[in-house]
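User: Can you model how L-rhamnitol sits in this protein?
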Amino acid sequence: MQDTDKNRIEESYRQAKERYAAYGVDTDRALKKLASIEVSMNCWQGDDVVGFEGADSITGGGIMATGNYPGRARNADELRMDADKAFSLIPGKKRFNLHGSYRESEKPVERDALAPEHFERWIEWAAEQKIGLDFNPTFFSHPKADDGYTLSSYDSGIRRFWIEHGKRCREVSAAIGERLGTACVDNVWIPDGSKDDPTDRMRRRHLLVESLDELFSEHLDPEHTLDAVESKLFGIGSESFVVGSHEFYLAYALSRKLVLTMDAGHYHPTESVAEKVSALLPFMRTLLLHVSRPVRWDSDHVVLFDDATRAIAREIVRADALDRVLLAVDFFDASINRITAWVVGMRGTYKSLLAALIDPMELMRKAELAGDLGTRLALAEEAKTLPLGAVWDRFCLDHDVPLGGAWLDEVQSYENDVLSKR
Ligand code: RNT
Ligand code: ZN
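Assistant: Here's the modeled complex, given as structure tokens:
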């Protein structure tokens, strides 16, 4: 970057800082705080949730990546290279979120035989990048999940297989966390459910409790791995019934002291995940949010700096819960350049966090306590047109990543030189 550009950014920031200071906001402090927040970037945006077990598309699971943009990562080396590229364009302290199906091995390995060695190169890569990893067992894209049930299958052999998979993934997760020195969150999401109304919801749920209890039976060091469970409202082919619904996992996580994962796309369209944060934190130590963007349904669109994401960030900041709410993005769009998707989604998430951190919260709280609700409302409105962009640019400059549209030029060159040749 040219010195003149740097000077311009610094000058704009200086002015913005004054504007915010007039509202009682310390932007320097906010930037420092933002630099400490880790957002976990999902591996599965890079290859349309295919994984490296020899499949060429995701099957089952009730989720779907649509689009056919060229350049999908076909192996782990390509995926790492693409993620490196995306990381170079995203400011902030990142993590990377893996799935069991992204294992590396010369010979085929069944899901119930996964071991830390199959993720060795991921661990080495993360150590080089100085980032933490997170993990997810993979309960889809597999013949043993073909009828839509895994841990709650009526077939005890099928249940056993998936319980074993879950156990192996916990072991992998703990090994990753120990090696990298930062707890690896192991998030269990299963697709189990049915297209039409089942006659017996209860038995499925009892089976799921039993399977999960077995899956989580071994005590593992929380310094190495944290167990999370993710609920869902419906999926493709499980529109009428999902065994692991919100109430199910809320009760399960509470009673077993696990982390509850809430995905922004897994609720009724008018329900807000943001609103749930403060309702659950009095009862749970840690929440994991899958920051996603549902459009009409759980469509997993690329996350944006939009009202819904901003509301999530704002609620976490206002609850002073940045150390108790873990953040991971969850989207998969195969219709656009996949690096662009990652960069837009991650930058949108950090930008939402920044907006929350430089909200004139103290003044608003003061007004609220004094019963001056008009002032509270007015401050929220005024805050919307304060120069957030200048503070964001400063963050990008500090983290040595390109500003504004400049990162798009880099993606374009990468597409020309690398992606278009795949
Ligand atoms: C599916 C869940 C889950 C997945 C990933 C790929 O509805 O959101 O988190 O997106 O495991
Ligand atoms: Zn999710």
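A couple of observations from the model: The chain has two domains: 1-25+362-422, 36-357. Residues 174 and 220 are 7 Å apart (CA to CA).
User: Helpful, thanks.
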